[in-house]
Sequence to fold (138 residues):
Amino acid sequence: MNIDRCKLIDLPKIYDKRGSLIPIESSSTIPFQIKRIYYIYDVPEGSGRGGHAHKELEQLFIAISGSFDVILDDGKATKKINLNRPDVGLYVSPMMWRTLENFSSNSVCLVIASLAFDENDYFRNYNDYLSALNLTKP
Ligand code: TYD
Fold:
């Protein structure tokens, strides 16, 4: 899966003097049907999350508050993306190794996902992930 399939999506902001609102709908806002959401918060300084890939799952990552980095790795190339605003989401395709790090204090990472939780959908071992891509460690 090519890293270029992962892209930033501008979310539709509705704002007036009372503040801002962002609706997210399947298909029109993001390219998959929403099955699950979860959020990550209270990440201790210096800690990371992720460190795995998914076989089928599609996801959108949003820095609802604060900021953090997402490092994408498709086995051939890596890319670091800083998410720091609630009106931009990062679409992450299946078969993409990802690591989240550099969380600012009080940051909240909202994740919108295309499938229910399934541990069998994970590659938690990087070499297994590379093997599934017919790649080996350099
Ligand atoms: P994990 O996906 O490894 O978290 P992260 O990518 O943020 O590092 O999940 C951490 C734990 O939470 C793991 O035991 C699985 C569990 N979990 C669920 O039960 N449901 C979920 O929707 C998610 C995302 C994780």
